[in-house]
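Re: duplicated header lines in exported structure tokens

Our pipeline writes sequence and tokens for each protein into one text file. With two proteins the header for the second block appears twice in some exports. Here is an export where it did not happen, for reference. First protein block:
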Amino acid sequence: MAKTLPKALGENGKRISIFLGTLGSGKTAIALNTAWQTAAGGEESILVDLDVINPYFRSRMLQNEFATYGVKVICPPAEIARSDLPALPAAIRGALVSRVRVCMDVGGDSIGATVLGCYRPYLPEGEYRLFLVVNSRRPFTQDTSGIVSAVKEIEIAAGLRIDCLVNNTNLGLETDIGSIKEGLEIVRKAAEQLGVSVAFSAVTEQLSKSAADVLGGEVFSLKEFLTPPWMA
């Protein structure tokens, strides 16, 4: 059963939510949960897989499963679905200019951001919001300066401005509330320097009950859809 979306994705959200993040940030998990919960709430939902970087965690792998939830997944053709080729279907442009709720899963380095920039002319003014998903336990985003640098690199490559940061600090199975809280403080400091907000913290379903009181902000409870191949 779907939980409630954070306000930045639900009642105060935009029609198009775009998630970027460096490798290991967890942006795909957040994108999947956003699209799934949107559909569970009775709205038409489209998930666009623009990640041309990560071969292991891609939204396109769940295309058939998500169709049963009422989520349409737009991704490269099946014959190259596991490749890194930026073969991006024209259906993406149609989704962006429609009236349907769209969630975009985008690679967060300069290459991924450049791919997103190709669709900048089709992003309706005032109808989209860019979220940078941050895992402060990953290289390059372990401190405030790293996060700020990542944001600037993405903004230059995409020609678009990051609107919000998302705290998704985790250590996989070893994640605890303490590490998430430490990550949140780092993300908050980066957001202050950048002049943006921290939209929410993402946590696993197992930690969600205790997280809200400890973190003191909005929490997005994530259902696990993708399992690393080395843990399958």
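Second protein block, exported in the same file:
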Amino acid sequence: MLTQLALKNMLPRTLFGRSLLIIVMPLIILQVVSTWIFYDRHWDTITRRLSTAIAGDIALTLELLEQSPGVEARTAILDLARRNFQFAITIQPGEIIPRTAVNGNSQIDHFLSRALGEMVRRPFQIDSTEYRERVIVDVQLRDAVMTIVVPGKRLFSTTTYIFIMWMVGTSLVLFAVASIFMRNQVRPIRRLATAADAFGKGRDSAEIEFRPEGAAEVRQAAAAFNLMRTRLRRQIRQRTDMLSGVSHDLRTPITRLKLQLAMLPESPEVHDLKNDIAEMERMIEGYLTFARGEGDEAGTETDLGLLVEDTVAGSRRNGAIIDLHIEGKLVAWLRPVAIKRVIGNLLANAERFGSHIWVRAGRRGDAIEITVDDDGPGIPKTHREDVFRPFYRLEESRNPTTGGTGLGLAIARDLVRGHGGDIVLEDSPHGGLRARLRLPV
């Protein structure tokens, strides 16, 4: 399980990265395996053949020296070996090969020792510490040591490294081509994600008007999104029109009742009826506001700091005691009337149940955060999500005489989530309740 989790965390998170991994990883594995097989077999084969050729040349030189022992003949044979075999040969009379091990290239030592043992059949010693430049072979003669310096190019082949460089070069070219291709394929998906996010946040503007492009599946998804967007627009427009008609139809009889009550003489019964009608108006307005949601208000780039200041100023005029702190300039794309209503609802709740309110607004990462604290009785943690349900009233901890339809927080969360944000309730450091509102920038 831990291994799977670690492997999952190591994998790329993006579609672009995973697609490249799917394309490139088999290519890398194939090239690594091919390179290893080629390197192993090619190096062994070439080294064995070159070692055999050198051992044969050394054996031939020794045989010629034995057949022609004279000084002039020896000089001619050594010159012949230098010109034809590229050997630099020196003979040291009276010397004996020391029995000291020389660490060199083990693979060259292995093949060259085997070949010399089969062809020369004399004691010898190999020094391949600088095998790229030269290899020194000491052969024991009867009364001397013959030292043969073999140039490195006769034992070392560069074709292996050329092959590796060729494989790496082609891999890089293929990786670059795959990157460009995959980036072009992923770009329409990113544009679709941006359009869906903008539409979900109510930014119904030119940034979500795009043409389907890319692969067939991406075009199909883009076409489905455009169709869904058109249907949602039509449904929102139909709902708004219907609610406008309902609002008009409900207000007409209420207005007639208010006019009729105004013509009656004042009495306790008439006063109660007026209060009932006023309560009915508030309830109807709350229901329609909740059902209407954000309505037809267009989003715009708004200075949220000024919006908060204006809303707090309105609450202060009603007698609320509010400490306000705004951190810097806060600009975001939003529906100003809807967000002002949200902040107003939070301030109204805090004012209703607390005597002092603290409001703070500032940038937190990729979002703007607004907190509203009060010193009231608060809400138990087990009920903090329930209060966001429509028509839910927390009678146990809130005063039942305060009124309300139980829609204020439900409307507030609905409006904020329509902007891509959220509202959560927490414990306030001032002893009451904290409402934390987050809006993406």
